[in-house]
């Protein structure tokens, strides 16, 4: 799979288009650090408490685990496991040096990444079909569309790679990555909103106006940024669209770095410690 870090620079002269290149590298680096840390949290907390006390899954979102719905529990467990794998593998797939130095390793890891994305999307859809989400119809629709887009992007990323249509493959790989980080951004955006606005628009049943917006907001803006990025990298260096794309990526990087610091300190690192202690105990 092609890398996001390489994608904007495939056809540009080495010393031109540096602003978009620098902004892309910064954003990818921020995503590497934050998403890998969140992936470790997902695997440690949900995996660590799966055997000892799976009801603790409900600490992050109500009704994730209920004894009366074993198939739904299995589906959401698969969703969490493959989602954590996605976030941990993503940084490796984005390193251009790995792709160039170890192309076979990159291809096989890419297959695993695509498979994990397809399972994560399909498992999420299975959970919704089995019991629905806590937020009802709006959340069902938003999360269901997210799962369908994940499966579609994973399939098209693989199909174009197999057919050696590298430009299309790169574009779909970027879209897949934008979707794969959705679960991570969902929690960060909620936390950021709570810090800034309290819990305005949120209810415990996830039926408030902000909850309805968030049912779609955690992935549709990501896709919009990815699409803008894909188109910007095809334009000549120095054009306004490339400058706008660079500013957009810098803004996204600033948000991710700030939110990562807050969440790592207050949630992720304590959650990792709690999950590991739960798996041992």
What does this molecule look like?
The protein is an all-alpha fold. It has helices at residues 18-52, 70-93, 96-101, 103-131, 137-162, 166-180, 182-197, 209-217, 220-232, 240-280. The longest helix is centred in the last third of the chain and has 41 residues, at 240-280.
| Global morphology | globular
The number of strands is 0
> Residue-averaged pLDDT, rounded?
80
Largest sheet composition: none
- Unreliable spans: 1-15
The amount of helix comes to over 70%
Beta content comes to under 5%
Helix-strand makeup class: mainly alpha
End-to-end separation: 40 Å
Brief characterization of the structure:
This protein has 281 residues and is an all-alpha fold. Helices cover 76% and strands 0% of the residues.
Task: Give keywords.
disordered N terminus, 281 residues, mainly alpha, single chain
């Amino acid at each position: 799979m092609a890398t996001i870090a390489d994608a904007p620079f495939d056809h540009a002269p080495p010393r031109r288009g540096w602003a978009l290149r620098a902004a892309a590298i910064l954003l990818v680096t921020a995503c590497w650090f934050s998403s890998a840390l969140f992936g470790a949290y997902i695997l440690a907390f949900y995996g660590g408490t799966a055997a000892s006390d799976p009801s603790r899954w409900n600490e992050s979102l109500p009704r994730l685990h209920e004894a009366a719905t074993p198939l739904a529990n299995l589906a959401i467990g698969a969703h969490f496991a493959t989602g954590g794998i996605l976030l941990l593998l993503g940084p490796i797939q984005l390193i251009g040096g790995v792709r160039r130095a170890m192309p076979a390793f990159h291809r096989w890891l890419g297959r695993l990444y695509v498979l994990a994305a397809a399972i994560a999307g399909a498992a999420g859809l299975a959970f919704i079909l089995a019991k629905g989400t806590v937020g009802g119809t709006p959340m069902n629709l938003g999360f269901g569309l997210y799962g369908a887009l994940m499966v579609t992007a994973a399939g098209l990323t693989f199909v174009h790679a197999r057919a050696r249509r590298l430009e299309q493959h790169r574009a779909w790989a970027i879209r897949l990555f934008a979707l794969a980080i959705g679960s991570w951004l969902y929690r960060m955006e909620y936390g950021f909103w709570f810090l800034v606005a309290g819990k305005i628009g949120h209810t415990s049943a996830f039926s408030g106006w902000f909850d309805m917006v968030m049912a779609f907001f955690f992935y549709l803006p990501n896709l919009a940024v990815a699409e803008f990025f894909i188109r910007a990298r095809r334009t000549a260096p120095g054009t306004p669209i490339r400058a706008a794309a660079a500013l957009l990526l810098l803004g996204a990087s600033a948000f991710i770095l700030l939110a990562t610091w807050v969440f790592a300190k207050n949630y992720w690192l304590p959650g990792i410690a709690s999950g590991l202690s739960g798996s041992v105990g």
